[in-house]
Design a protein that fits this description.
This protein is an alpha+beta fold. It is about 45% helix and about 25% strand. It contains six helices and eight strands.
Protein backbone atom coordinates (compact mmCIF):
# COMPACT_ATOMS: atom_id res chain seq x y z
CA UNK A 1 0.00 0.00 0.00
CA UNK A 2 1.38 3.41 -0.98
CA UNK A 3 1.60 6.58 1.04
CA UNK A 4 -1.38 8.94 0.54
CA UNK A 5 -1.69 12.60 1.45
CA UNK A 6 -4.65 14.95 0.93
CA UNK A 7 -5.51 18.18 2.72
CA UNK A 8 -8.44 20.47 1.94
CA UNK A 9 -8.44 24.04 3.28
CA UNK A 10 -11.64 26.07 3.29
CA UNK A 11 -10.89 29.56 1.95
CA UNK A 12 -14.44 30.92 1.85
CA UNK A 13 -17.93 29.43 1.72
CA UNK A 14 -17.99 27.19 -1.33
CA UNK A 15 -14.26 27.53 -2.08
CA UNK A 16 -11.60 25.04 -0.98
CA UNK A 17 -7.87 24.81 -1.67
CA UNK A 18 -6.82 21.15 -2.07
CA UNK A 19 -3.30 19.78 -1.63
CA UNK A 20 -2.25 16.22 -2.30
CA UNK A 21 0.94 14.31 -2.95
CA UNK A 22 1.13 15.10 -6.68
CA UNK A 23 -0.91 18.27 -7.31
CA UNK A 24 -2.79 21.25 -5.91
CA UNK A 25 -6.26 22.37 -6.87
CA UNK A 26 -9.33 24.43 -6.14
CA UNK A 27 -12.89 23.26 -5.55
CA UNK A 28 -15.86 25.55 -6.10
CA UNK A 29 -19.41 24.67 -5.04
CA UNK A 30 -21.34 23.10 -2.22
CA UNK A 31 -22.36 19.65 -1.12
CA UNK A 32 -24.18 18.03 -4.00
CA UNK A 33 -22.67 20.15 -6.79
CA UNK A 34 -19.06 21.18 -7.20
CA UNK A 35 -16.34 21.83 -9.76
CA UNK A 36 -12.67 20.98 -9.14
CA UNK A 37 -9.61 21.95 -11.16
CA UNK A 38 -6.03 20.95 -10.33
CA UNK A 39 -2.46 21.66 -11.40
CA UNK A 40 -2.31 18.52 -13.57
CA UNK A 41 -5.05 19.93 -15.78
CA UNK A 42 -7.82 17.65 -14.52
CA UNK A 43 -11.28 19.24 -14.29
CA UNK A 44 -13.94 17.37 -12.36
CA UNK A 45 -17.63 18.26 -12.26
CA UNK A 46 -19.77 16.41 -9.72
CA UNK A 47 -23.53 16.59 -9.21
CA UNK A 48 -25.44 14.43 -6.77
CA UNK A 49 -28.31 14.09 -4.38
CA UNK A 50 -26.89 14.35 -0.82
CA UNK A 51 -27.60 11.40 1.43
CA UNK A 52 -28.77 9.06 -1.35
CA UNK A 53 -25.48 7.88 -2.82
CA UNK A 54 -26.63 8.95 -6.30
CA UNK A 55 -24.22 11.16 -8.17
CA UNK A 56 -22.79 11.93 -11.59
CA UNK A 57 -19.11 12.81 -12.08
CA UNK A 58 -17.49 14.07 -15.27
CA UNK A 59 -13.67 14.08 -15.41
CA UNK A 60 -11.75 15.86 -18.17
CA UNK A 61 -7.98 15.64 -18.42
CA UNK A 62 -5.61 17.81 -20.36
CA UNK A 63 -2.65 15.60 -21.15
CA UNK A 64 0.67 17.28 -21.82
CA UNK A 65 2.19 16.33 -25.15
CA UNK A 66 5.89 15.64 -25.19
CA UNK A 67 7.89 16.31 -28.33
CA UNK A 68 11.01 14.31 -28.93
CA UNK A 69 12.80 16.42 -31.54
CA UNK A 70 12.39 20.00 -30.39
CA UNK A 71 10.27 21.86 -27.90
CA UNK A 72 8.36 24.89 -29.10
CA UNK A 73 7.96 27.87 -26.78
CA UNK A 74 5.53 30.59 -27.80
CA UNK A 75 7.11 34.00 -27.43
CA UNK A 76 4.91 37.07 -26.99
CA UNK A 77 6.08 40.23 -28.68
CA UNK A 78 6.04 43.59 -26.83
CA UNK A 79 2.86 44.53 -28.69
CA UNK A 80 1.08 41.64 -26.96
CA UNK A 81 0.58 39.70 -30.19
CA UNK A 82 1.98 36.24 -30.54
CA UNK A 83 5.31 36.15 -32.35
CA UNK A 84 6.74 33.27 -34.36
CA UNK A 85 7.28 30.04 -32.40
CA UNK A 86 10.73 29.77 -30.87
CA UNK A 87 12.46 26.38 -31.14
CA UNK A 88 14.99 24.80 -28.80
CA UNK A 89 18.19 26.80 -28.52
CA UNK A 90 20.54 23.86 -29.14
CA UNK A 91 19.17 23.66 -32.68
CA UNK A 92 20.05 27.31 -33.37
CA UNK A 93 23.39 27.07 -31.52
CA UNK A 94 24.63 24.56 -34.10
CA UNK A 95 24.50 27.25 -36.81
CA UNK A 96 26.69 29.73 -34.90
CA UNK A 97 30.45 30.22 -35.22
CA UNK A 98 32.75 30.18 -32.15
CA UNK A 99 32.81 34.00 -31.97
CA UNK A 100 29.02 34.10 -32.24
CA UNK A 101 28.72 31.48 -29.47
CA UNK A 102 30.92 33.62 -27.21
CA UNK A 103 28.66 36.61 -27.95
CA UNK A 104 25.55 34.49 -27.32
CA UNK A 105 26.85 33.24 -23.95
CA UNK A 106 27.86 36.72 -22.79
CA UNK A 107 24.42 38.12 -23.72
CA UNK A 108 22.66 35.29 -21.87
CA UNK A 109 24.77 35.99 -18.75
CA UNK A 110 23.93 39.69 -19.02
CA UNK A 111 20.21 39.45 -19.85
CA UNK A 112 19.24 36.01 -18.50
CA UNK A 113 17.39 35.28 -15.28
CA UNK A 114 19.46 34.25 -12.27
CA UNK A 115 18.17 31.35 -10.18
CA UNK A 116 19.62 32.78 -6.94
CA UNK A 117 17.77 36.06 -7.42
CA UNK A 118 14.55 34.18 -8.27
CA UNK A 119 14.83 32.03 -5.12
CA UNK A 120 15.61 35.07 -2.97
CA UNK A 121 12.55 36.91 -4.31
CA UNK A 122 10.45 33.76 -3.91
CA UNK A 123 11.45 33.34 -0.29
CA UNK A 124 11.20 37.02 0.71
CA UNK A 125 8.36 38.28 -1.53
CA UNK A 126 6.78 35.06 -2.79
CA UNK A 127 3.37 35.57 -1.21
CA UNK A 128 2.95 38.82 -3.18
CA UNK A 129 4.38 37.35 -6.42
CA UNK A 130 7.84 38.96 -6.32
CA UNK A 131 9.52 36.00 -8.05
CA UNK A 132 6.83 35.91 -10.75
CA UNK A 133 7.30 39.63 -11.50
CA UNK A 134 11.03 38.92 -11.91
CA UNK A 135 10.36 36.00 -14.29
CA UNK A 136 8.00 38.09 -16.43
CA UNK A 137 4.85 36.23 -15.36
CA UNK A 138 3.13 39.52 -14.59
CA UNK A 139 -0.47 38.26 -14.81
CA UNK A 140 -0.11 35.60 -12.15
CA UNK A 141 2.11 37.91 -10.08
CA UNK A 142 -0.67 40.51 -9.99
CA UNK A 143 -3.16 37.79 -9.00
CA UNK A 144 -0.91 36.74 -6.10
CA UNK A 145 -0.50 40.37 -5.04
CA UNK A 146 -4.25 41.00 -5.16
CA UNK A 147 -5.07 37.81 -3.25
CA UNK A 148 -2.65 38.66 -0.44
CA UNK A 149 -3.26 42.43 -0.26
CA UNK A 150 -6.98 42.28 -1.04
CA UNK A 151 -7.66 39.95 1.86
CA UNK A 152 -5.45 41.93 4.27
CA UNK A 153 -2.99 39.06 4.51
CA UNK A 154 -5.47 36.22 4.87
CA UNK A 155 -4.79 35.28 1.24
CA UNK A 156 -1.52 33.79 2.42
CA UNK A 157 -3.54 30.59 2.81
CA UNK A 158 -3.56 30.43 -1.00
CA UNK A 159 -0.36 32.27 -1.96
CA UNK A 160 1.78 30.49 0.65
CA UNK A 161 1.34 26.99 -0.82
CA UNK A 162 1.45 28.51 -4.33
CA UNK A 163 4.86 30.01 -3.51
CA UNK A 164 6.14 26.73 -2.07
CA UNK A 165 5.13 24.93 -5.25
CA UNK A 166 6.81 27.65 -7.33
CA UNK A 167 10.02 27.20 -5.32
CA UNK A 168 10.10 23.55 -6.38
CA UNK A 169 9.31 24.50 -9.99
CA UNK A 170 11.80 27.41 -10.06
CA UNK A 171 14.66 25.65 -11.92
CA UNK A 172 12.32 24.66 -14.77
CA UNK A 173 10.76 28.14 -14.96
CA UNK A 174 14.22 29.73 -15.15
CA UNK A 175 15.33 27.21 -17.77
CA UNK A 176 12.31 27.93 -19.99
CA UNK A 177 12.74 31.70 -19.64
CA UNK A 178 16.43 31.52 -20.49
CA UNK A 179 15.83 29.14 -23.42
CA UNK A 180 13.42 31.61 -24.97
CA UNK A 181 15.96 34.39 -24.43
CA UNK A 182 18.76 32.25 -25.89
CA UNK A 183 16.70 31.58 -29.01
CA UNK A 184 15.83 35.23 -29.42
CA UNK A 185 19.50 36.25 -29.16
CA UNK A 186 20.60 33.44 -31.51
CA UNK A 187 17.98 34.55 -34.07
CA UNK A 188 19.22 38.16 -33.80
CA UNK A 189 22.82 37.01 -34.38
CA UNK A 190 21.84 34.92 -37.40
CA UNK A 191 19.80 37.81 -38.84
CA UNK A 192 22.77 40.18 -38.42
CA UNK A 193 25.00 37.69 -40.21
CA UNK A 194 22.61 37.59 -43.19
CA UNK A 195 22.46 41.41 -43.47
Amino acid sequence: MGFRFRKSIKIAPGIKFNINKKSVGMTFGTRGAHFTVNSKGTRTTSVGVPGTGLSYTDVKTTKKRHRTSSTVYQDISPSGRSAEPVYDAPLLRNDLTNDELILLNSEIKRRGKNIAVAYLLGILLGIVGGHRFYLGKVGTAIIMLLITAGTMGYGIIVTGPWTIIDLFRMPRMIEQKNLVLENRIAQEILERRQN
